[in-house]
Queue: 2 jobs
Job 1
Amino acid sequence: MNDTDTLCFSRRDLLKGGGALVIGFRIGGSTVSAAAARGDVAGPPDPNAIDSWIAVHADNTATVCLGKGEFGQGNTTGLLQIAGEELDLDMSQLRWVQLDTNVSPNQGATTSSSSIHRGGPQIRAAAAEARQALLALASTRLGVQTGSLTVSKGVVSIDGHPTRSVTYGELLGDKPFNVKFTGTAPQKPINRYRLVGTSVPRVDIPAKASGTYVHMQHVRVRDMLHGRVVRPRGQRAYGAGAKPLSIDESSIADIAGARVVRKGDFVGVVAAREWDAVKAARELKVTWRESPALPTNLFEHMRAAKTTDTVIADWGDAPKAFAQAAHVASSTYRCPYQSHAPFAANCALADVGPNGALVMSSTQDIYNSRDMLAQVLGLPVEKVRVQYHEGSGTFGRSCYEDAAQAAAVMSQAVGKPVRVQFMRSDELGWDDYGPAHLADVRAGIDASGKLVAYEYHGWQHGWMVNETTHELVLLTPPKERTTGAGSIPVNRMSTGSMYAVANRRVVSHAVPMVGYLKGAPLRSPLDLSFAFASEQTIDELAFMAKIDPLEFRRNNIGDARWLGVLNAAAAAAAWKPKVAASAASDADVVTGRGIALGTHHVSYGAAVADVVVDRRTGNIVATHVYGALDAGQVINPGLVENQIVGQAIQATSRVLKEEVTFDKSGVTSLDWVSYPVLRFAEHPQVTAVVVQRLDEPSTGAGEEVMGATAAAIANAFFDATGVRLRQYPMTPERVKAALAAKT
Amino acid sequence: MADELKIKVNGRTWPVEASADTPLLYVLANELELKGPRFGCGLAQCGSCSVLADGVEIRSCVTPVAAVADRSLTTLEGLAALYAQQKGLAQAPALHPLQQALIDDQAPQCGYCYNGMLIKGAELLAQNPRPTEADIRAHMNGHLCRCGTYPRVMKAIKLAANKMAGATP
């Protein structure tokens, strides 16, 4: 075994000198090596102790225990910058550890672009308090007040006497702080920042480019078996489960060493060799109980559903304002189910024995994952340890928990470690999809082009509560988040909030999920759909008023930051004012340019998109996306630029190509042919603009350009053709149908 | 098994325990414990598992191991050495120029697709030292990236081409 063996870091190891230790161990079965050195107490560690967050080593480096996972967005680098800023350490003096429920503080899930937004202030406060404690030690050691001390690169010296100094390592090397985390330590003033606000290189990139990085899919342990899940190809209507009526084990009798694992309705196979497990999963004959039909008239079905309705915003008198408006744009928009579709199908490894369970996965929330695993395994929470390894970009809740639970269930059944690799059809077929959305949007302006009324009605179902394996193993009834915390109502931030409009009504119609597909948050959850509908409506009003769409938005924005990000995108694109579609022609190949705004929770996104439309083929190519993002104080502009590039490309993919397809009996988009994503040859150039606001709090940077890009592409299509597409993905078939309907 | 199956990977010959029909990927990942080739789809649709066979990119997830027994295979781990051999360099650099360019360009996000990006990009640069943007788009089109880093891969390939042109002995 090489260093793809289980990687484990313990708090004790941290105190012994850094996070780069590699220790092979097993928790459930026989001990391999250095078991005594692991973090042997179930976490989370006490959040009120500085020792839970930061350890200082004798070599004058520090390890920061982050509670937010690296998913390729670079948050590890950004959080270390924040810590290094407060501690006055260089990046080369900082280390970190992978998330582990025996080690990591619980900073909550790595979701909603919250790492810097919500995790950053905690890290900053912890580092400031650690620095305060180190200065107090230095004050005693050097015999001067802390006010006369200066720190640079972890060397504390007396002002004016640089030779009278002591290092952090000498003060505390590998000993605990024993200091309470009160959050009251003074923090460095922004005008003294030297690391924050600079584009330091990402700490994870060298290993990723050189091929030494350990992704979850690389992790192996001794004596493990390879497992695969066995399910119908493509999920069926939610609520019916997947009940095996009979399993013909003789169908895999010729695959030596392969065996079936069944618990409740869960079916899987394990084998010593991976290829045998793959073949066994493919060849095992299972007769499944028939499921109720999925709705093939999806949007009509959603509209007719018995919904739970919530008024999200109700300001002024919208009906009266509509009655007095000079122009009203009113349309219905249809938005598909989309898959997280991580580039690599999820993988997990579990070792479950009589003494407890160790589960490794690419979860976005190790502590929540642990809770769910404990339920599935019937173990107390403190007997379950979860370690995180990065998989491929997940963009929300893909199948990582499902894979983790499947591995755990199979390991518990066979008494050996089991590695489960989802196959492509498992991942695309059993994902908890970003839900479909139906919107009725109308908005009105007065004769001067001022937005006076806005109304948005949205229909969508909720999110999963229990994972598929959980439901199959425990046979629990269907459960979803329909209302309240954790549900997915229409986001009022994404539905007109960027404009000053006195009369605004937003209503969310929650459709029950039973009978549809499973849902879960997918990057910018539904905000892409909200923007697609809302920002086309705004564009339509600009067209009705014969005003340039940029100028129309400027006239109606009531907030300097929205205006700032809009202008930043427009300036990057060298926007030339004109009324949309005023240059549209009947040529076979036409070009267009669109602009739009978008958000998720707090930050401000804007995009300009250029497209080429071939009327003969119906093909739309996005040639250039200019994306701008105001996320407050940007810790590392390079990271945010990369996020803007990624969002622009992924949103182009989603609005032009991606759609989960299904027939009555189940999902049919099970590979990269039936679930196409944007390919290399199709990608637009991207110009990324970071609107830096050092004096504002840092807010999320991973989602806001998604909706803006998608809507800008839709508006660019109108500019090119004079035709609106009110359903995405904007496939060649839909383009041709829309163009034909116009003529 | 009458004849013991062997494969040549990164200049070294390895005995294979797996059955002849086993996809090469599972042998490289599980027997040789290599990190370069990695599972993405198992359907030859994404490029995650790519390796070079006699310098030509193949998809190891659908290639039976027996089919490449007489080929010289290069994985990501052997890319720098192959480059040195192609360029006639006395010593292999630590990284292939494209690897360095991807670092300089801060290109990867999750980095999972970069095995394929590197294998295919290195193949391109070996065949065509001065690829145009159109050449790069066409050559790389079988390799998906879900994080959306295509523009930076494009830039890195151009960067590497420039550096390699300068580095030719």
Job 2
Amino acid sequence: MNIGFEHIDRLLIVKINGDIDHHSCEEIRSKIDKEITLKNPKSILFDMEQVGFMDSSGIGVLIGRYKLIANNGGKAAMTNIKPQIMRLCEICGLQKIIQIYPNKKQAIAGVKEC
Amino acid sequence: MKVYNEMKLEFLSKSQNESFARSVVAAFVAQLDPTIEELAEIKTAVSEAVTNAIIHGYSCNTGNVVIVSRIIDNTVEVEIRDFGKGIADIELARQPLYTSKPELERSGMGFTVMETFMDKVEIESLPGEGTIIHMTKTIKTA
């Protein structure tokens, strides 16, 4: 599982490449948490452009990272979500706690405003 | 004349097989020429059921998961069976946000996702003997 990290000021952008399911979520969780511990970002943005599949295990991982960031007063956001994954997010009510943006530029601007 | 086809898949309850299992069912269903959305819904529902079998059915043990899928005209049936510990309270397990393993950061949305993405979901389970999830979905475009 290849996960890319980018930092813009205190915003951590996480680019996940591949499927997010129960098998991959442990590795995703541990890599993101390690980056959060090392760099102490205020907010987090998940760039989902390279995620072709996600099930409810992925929802658990995203909510878990949201809690970590929110506990320190930060915001969580997502962008570039494929339509089939968007439906899953809607069913689980994810958009109520993690702001969803249509593209990365708007997401970065949106999170920085907060 | 009715269209009928059937396949059976059996694999160990290892998380590495989740992707394999949903891809096999998707490849089988592809003969009905579903939309990308319909295929994604079936893959997600299968992934949820297989994950449940691995995490909850077998927990720390390894056993077999059996998937039987049938195509009857334009309807897909998927049956996912484990021989694990079973579900003591099926109605509770079906509740949105319920998880018996909160320490694993589970969302508790597995059955809700299956019920939303498939037309019908039935659960048969006996404590100590295992669980069978029956799901059906009619492919509208077929």
